[in-house]
Structure prediction request, 94 residues.
Amino acid sequence: MLSTFARFLSIPKDELIGDLYNTLKTTYSPKTLNIFDVTPDTSCSSGLQLLLEMKDAQWPDGVKRHVQRHQDVMALLQPHIESGDVHALSLNLK
Prediction:
């Protein structure tokens, strides 16, 4: 059974598309992480909405456990997690 846990993360468009999106897309298999959509986030003019599906336990520790397998992704995510800029990240957890 799927449980849904949603949090929101705002990332500048150029950083999301240029670094984070591409790194996530090429690092993880679909069974681990699916990027369903990256769309304009109407609640934050400087951000995009990033919709993810991950197999893990909870936010934020679950995200960190997966992301630490690729330090580049962790480095991109960490400042946004710590800053509290939580606007556009949705996780569907198994």
